[in-house]
Specification:
By secondary structure, the chain is an all-alpha fold. The chain has 14 helices and 2 strands; from the N terminus they run H-H-H-H-H-H-E-H-H-H-H-H-H-H-E-H. The protein has a two-stranded antiparallel ribbon. It is globular and about 50 Å long.
Length: 367
């Protein structure tokens, strides 16, 4: 199909599709967990890019309202699929699921946006962006930080009381409902009541998007193929994660925060940096902050409610470790400071990357 060739040619990191048959070979031959983990992780990257491209193309055939909702909901489909596969493995994989949520938020805000500021700042000295749009995103992510702090605080306060774990689950479920409501209202804000604020950003993003498909049918085929591919390699990726972490001398939380999250967002990462180099920092902010919002307000609650169906006796909750909560809070504070003046430079990006590396050191040395 011509549209497939065009998408492959214009989708970042599509050359990594060669890792799909390699991952299949490693799985069939039952090679070491490290090889299965690396090959399947690299295979997820281009598939996530293709999934994002197909979603973008599909939204253009459905009008701004439905299309925008679909794009917002499926923007992080790769992370959602990986999370669902991990949940199906049982509660033993819950720390990895939670860590990937934390890693997606922190990675987008500190690593990807920091890289974008550095790349754009070196080439353009100082870059300006829409302060209103950025501040709105920062405020929504502050809500995400609150949604992590409250269950952790509740868990500590209720220490020693009977049924503490069940109570934390109930609190998490109620918070998840609130997050989904806020997410829906955010879409209403973006697509209807205040869409003029984001019109110029969306126009730039449309010009910058990968090659367009010819029809809704083509987009649906690409969406189905990419989803099936991600589901398959995610089984290998998640199934080998624990053993691979041991062989690499890493703890599962570090794997989730700094490996799984990067794998699921790699295609978006490259797009954000490229847009910053082209002096389209508003697009970079929409990609990074928008992705973090989707993870916090949509993907996390959906994973929680999915766990109620998959593992009703041991559902997922929003009780994250202290270091994970602190990482998200720190990221939100830094984003708020960055958004204040509506402009950025390469030094701000370096400082954000410095904080990200400091957090990586802390997570890597967890007992």
């Amino acid at each position: 199909m011509k549209f497939l060739k065009k998408i492959l040619a214009e989708t970042p990191l599509s050359f990594l599709l060669v890792m799909i048959p390699i991952a299949m070979f490693c799985e069939m031959r039952e090679t070491t967990a490290a090889w299965r983990f690396l090959s399947s992780g690299l295979a997820v990257i281009p598939l996530a890019g293709l999934l994002g491209s197909a979603t973008e193309d599909l939204t253009e055939t459905m009008g701004p309202g439905l299309g925008g909702f679909l794009n917002g909901s499926l923007g992080n489909a790769a992370e959602l699929i990986i999370g669902l596969v991990a949940i199906r493995e049982g509660p033993v994989m819950y720390p990895l699921v939670k860590a990937s949520i934390t890693g997606s938020i922190v990675g987008n805000v500190l690593f990807v946006l920091g890289m974008s500021f550095v790349a754009g700042g070196i080439r353009h000295h100082t870059q300006k962006f829409n302060r209103t749009a950025a501040s709105t995103g920062a405020t929504l992510l502050a809500l995400a930080a609150v949604s992590l702090v409250i269950p952790a605080a509740y868990y500590t306060i209720a220490s020693g009381t009977p049924g503490r774990a069940a109570r934390v689950v109930h609190v998490s479920e109620e918070i998840s409902v609130i997050l989904l409501i806020v997410y829906a209202l955010n879409l209403l804000f973006l697509l209807h009541t205040h869409k003029s604020i984001f019109n110029h950003v969306q126009a730039h993003e449309k010009k910058a998007a990968p090659g367009k498909v010819n029809s809704r049918r083509d987009a649906l085929i690409m969406l189905a193929l990419a989803t099936a591919g991600i589901a398959y390699v995610s089984e290998i990726f998640v199934g080998s994660a624990q053993d691979a972490a041991t062989s690499f001398g890493m703890n599962p939380v570090f794997i989730g925060v700094f490996v799984v999250a990067v794998v699921g967002n790699a295609a978006e990462h490259s797009s954000s940096v490229l847009m910053a180099i082209k002096n389209k920092l508003d697009v970079s902010l929409m990609i990074t902050v928008g992705s973090s919002i989707q993870i916090a307000l949509f993907v996390a609650p959906v994973l929680l409610f999915s766990s109620l169906l998959i593992n009703p006796s041991h559902p997922l909750d929003l009780h994250f470790t202290l270091l994970e909560v602190l990482s998200v809070v720190i990221s939100m504070l830094i984003l708020a400071f960055v958004c204040q003046d509506g402009e950025s430079n390469w030094l701000e990006g370096v400082m954000m990357l410095g904080v990200y590396i400091i957090l990586a050191v802390a997570f890597y040395n967890l007992p």
